[in-house]
Each structure stands twice: as structure tokens, then as C-alpha cells.
């Protein structure tokens, strides 16, 4: 490892078996784990017996239900409608980020070959662009549901409203800015998540490599230098999920209001 340098992933996915990429493999494994967890979670919630898993799930769902209802002005119908999307996005980002820490741990502890077949999902900008595009698509959908398709299109393309010609021209210009802002919204959501996770991958591997170099032949000891950074990345995983879903809530609220 000292001769070759640290393992730094490319900016985008890498082909494993064409057309399958390491991101595809990671997503498949992650979705398989999510399916198994969902099965046990559903089984725990349906049973009448008390368990730690059932208690944790009920507290988790109750927390989000209360938080979202407060965020959406107490609108229970609106909250329940978008509850699965918002909470699901939080889980995908948070547990997906935890999964990449597990991937790195396996890659460091067992075999680096694992890192050529599995790659952190959110360290590929294409994955985060999909998540950001989904949020913007729902933003437009909420606007259409709340204000109608014609008024939504008009607010972006030709919002010629106002008491005088100057106000009308300003509103038209502001509408165009909002249209451009949709693309900026996608970039803001996706690049923030991608940048933080990709930087975390690079940080851990560089620290591990430097620790191995410092400890020379005691490579196993050198790996211990990266442990504090794993705990830091646990915090980053939570923060990224909170920020992403917090922005989702803010965008959904603004979309429901008149604009």
C-alpha cells in the first residue's frame, strides 16, 4: 500500500462488469439490506408483543410525525401525504452513508478488493443528482396541485402582475429567476451531499495511508489512526440527512404557498 498510495475513488462510478458499475452493486446490496430490515420492522409493528425494535420504530415514526406536522402548520393531510417521501429520503441518506462506512471498514480490515466492487452511493454525483431531481419534481408537483398548472407555468414564464408597468416587469424577471432557481436547487441539494461524502471517503483513506506509512511495518496499528475520523463521519452522515430533509420541508412549504 505504501508503494501504490491510498485508494482514492474516481469522481464517477467505475465499471465492474459492463454495464454493471460499482454503484449498481452497492445499490443492489443496500436495497437488499433495506428490504430485510423493512420485513422485520413490519413484522415487529404488526405483532402485539413488546420489543425494543417495535418501541424504537414507534418512537422514530412518532418523532417525525410530530415534527412534520408542526413544520406544515398542523396540516395533518399534507403531512401524511408526504411523510413517506421525506422520512424515506432521510433513511436513504443516513443509512446509505452509514453503509459506506461499513464498506470502508470491510475494505480496510478484510480486503481492498471490496472497494472495487462496492462504492459509497452518495460519493457518485449521479446518485445525488437523482435525489435532488426527485425533490424538485415534487416541488413542481405540489405547486401544480396547490395553484394549478396554468398559474404555475405563468408564475415562472410570464408573471405579468403588478400595479404598474415597473412592478409587472420586475415580477416577470423574478419569475425567470425562480425558473433558474429550480436548477440551482438541484445543484445545491446534490453537490452538497456529494461533496461531503466524497470528501469523507478521501479523508479516511488518506489518514489510513499516512498512519500506515508512519507505523511502517505495523500496518494494522496504522489503521487505528482512521478510527476517530470514522466517528466524525457518523456525525456527518446524520447532519447530511438532516440538512437534505430540512431543505425538502422548506421547499415543500414554499411550494404550497402562493408565489
Short description:
This protein has 259 residues and is mainly alpha-helical.
Provide an overview of this structure.
- The protein has nine helices and two strands; from the N terminus they run E-E-H-H-H-H-H-H-H-H-H.
- The protein has 259 residues and is mostly helical.
- It has one domain.
- A hairpin with a 2-residue loop joins strand 1 and strand 2.
- Helix 5 runs antiparallel to helix 7 and helix 5 runs parallel beside helix 9.
- The N and C termini lie far apart (57 Å).
- The model has no long low-confidence stretch (mean pLDDT 84).
What is the fold's blueprint, element by element?
Elements lengths: L14 E3 L2 E2 H25 L5 H20 L4 H34 L4 H4 L7 H23 L1 H9 L7 H50 L4 H4 L4 H30 L3
Antiparallel strand pairs: 1-2
Helix pairs in contact: 2-3, 3-9, 5-6, 5-7, 5-9, 6-7, 7-9
Largest sheet: 2 strands, antiparallel
* Helix proportion: over 70%
Identify the strand order in the major beta sheet. 1-2
Give the count of structural domains: 1
**Shape descriptor:** globular
What is the typical, i.e. mean, pLDDT?
84
Secondary-structure element series? EEHHHHHHHHH
β-strand amount: under 5%
Count all strands and give the number: 2
Distance between the termini: 57 Å
Q: Treating each run of at least 4 consecutive H or I residues as one helix, how many helices?
A: 9
Q: What assembly state would you assign to the polypeptide chains in this entry?
A: single chain
As residue ranges, the low-confidence spans are none
Amino acid at each position: 500500500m505504501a508503494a501504490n498510495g491510498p485508494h482514492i475513488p474516481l469522481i464517477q462510478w467505475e465499471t465492474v462488469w459492463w454495464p454493471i458499475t460499482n454503484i449498481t452493486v452497492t445499490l443492489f446490496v443496500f436495497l437488499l439490506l433495506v428490504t430485510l430490515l423493512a420485513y422485520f420492522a413490519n413484522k415487529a409493528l404488526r405483532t402485539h408483543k413488546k420489543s425494543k425494535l417495535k418501541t424504537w420504530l414507534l418512537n422514530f415514526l412518532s418523532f417525525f410525525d410530530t415534527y412534520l406536522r408542526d413544520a406544515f402548520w398542523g396540516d395533518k393531510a399534507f403531512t401524511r401525504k408526504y411523510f413517506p417521501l421525506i422520512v424515506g429520503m432521510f433513511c436513504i441518506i443516513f443509512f446509505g452513508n452509514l453503509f459506506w462506512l461499513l464498506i470502508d471498514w470491510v475494505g480496510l480490515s478484510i480486503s481492498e478488493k471490496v472497494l472495487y466492487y462496492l462504492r459509497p452511493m452518495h460519493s457518485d454525483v449521479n446518485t445525488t443528482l437523482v435525489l435532488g431531481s426527485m425533490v424538485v419534481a415534487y416541488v413542481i408537483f405540489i405547486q401544480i396541485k396547490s395553484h394549478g398548472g396554468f398559474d404555475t407555468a405563468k408564475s415562472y414564464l410570464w408573471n405579468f402582475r403588478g400595479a404598474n408597468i415597473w412592478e409587472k416587469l420586475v415580477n416577470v424577471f423574478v419569475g425567470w429567476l425562480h425558473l433558474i432557481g429550480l436548477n440551482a436547487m438541484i445543484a445545491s441539494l446534490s453537490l452538497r451531499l456529494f461533496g461531503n461524502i466524497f470528501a469523507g471517503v478521501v479523508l479516511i483513506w488518506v489518514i489510513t495511508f499516512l498512519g500506515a506509512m508512519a507505523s511502517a511495518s505495523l500496518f494494522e496499528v496504522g489503521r487505528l489512526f482512521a478510527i476517530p475520523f470514522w466517528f466524525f463521519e457518523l456525525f456527518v452522515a446524520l447532519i447530511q440527512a438532516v440538512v437534505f430533509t430540512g431543505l425538502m420541508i422548506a421547499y415543500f412549504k414554499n411550494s404550497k404557498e402562493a408565489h
